[in-house]
Amino acid sequence: MPRVLIVDDSTAILEVLEMLLSDEGYDVVCCADPYEAIRLAEQQPIDLLLTDIVMPDLSGTAVAERIRTIHPDLPVILMSGYHDVTRLGYPLVTKPFQLARLSQMLRCMLDQKPSQPRE
């Protein structure tokens, strides 16, 4: 079961995404604090990072870059309610998004990732 780390400063969004993606068969780990997300990524395997771009203290792109120093081949999807954001080479899903579109993006990114054994 692929493990998806979701980072968003909105607990409401985290709760909805956790419920929806768990129902889709993903092992979901949610974090409202970007620094906590980085600590979690240091401690456990992650198959995909889904992070909001605009957050206080640390942007989602900065979170992605830091976590990719730990997991260099980690697929990343950025999400934002703003349509004029710079995404720095990562796929972007805009809020509000449809579950079917998000699921398609997750599956596509995970299918492209080389499989690695779990620790």
Please tell me about this protein's structure.
- With 119 residues, the protein is α/β, with parallel strands linked by helices.
- It has one domain (3-112): Response regulator (Rossmann fold), CATH 3.40.50.2300.
- The protein is built from four helices and five strands, in the order βαβαβαββα.
- It has helices at 11-23, 34-43, 60-70, 99-112; strands spanning 3-7, 27-31, 48-52, 76-80, 92-94.
- It has a five-stranded parallel sheet with strand order 2-1-3-4-5, sandwiched between helices.
- The radius of gyration is 13 Å and the shape is globular.
Quick take:
With 119 residues, the chain is an alpha/beta fold.
Question: Characteristics of this structure?
Answer:
single chain; 119 residues; alpha/beta; Rossmann fold; five-stranded parallel β-sheet; 4 helices; 40% helix
Write the layout of secondary structure elements.
Blueprint: E1 3-7, H1 11-23, E2 27-31, H2 34-43, E3 48-52, H3 60-70, E4 76-80, E5 92-94, H4 99-112
Parallel strand pairs: 1-2, 1-3, 3-4, 4-5
Helix pairs in contact: 2-3
DSSP helical segment count: 4
What quaternary form is this?
A: single chain
Structural class: alpha/beta
Mind summarizing the main beta sheet? 5 strands, parallel
Helical proportion, percent range: 40-55%
Q: For the record, what CATH class applies?
A: Alpha Beta
The CATH fourth-level homologous superfamily: Response regulator
Q: What is the distance, rounded to the nearest whole angstrom, between the alpha carbons of the first and last residues? A: 14 Å
Task: Give the spatial strand order of the biggest sheet.
Answer: 2-1-3-4-5
**Poorly predicted spans:** none
* Average predicted confidence as pLDDT: 87
Shape: globular
Number of domains: 1
Report the radius of gyration as a whole number of Å: 13 Å
Instruction: Indicate the CATH architecture.
Output: 3-Layer(aba) Sandwich
Question: What's the helix-strand series?
Answer: EHEHEHEEH
* Beta-strand content bin: 15-25%
Number of DSSP E strands: 5
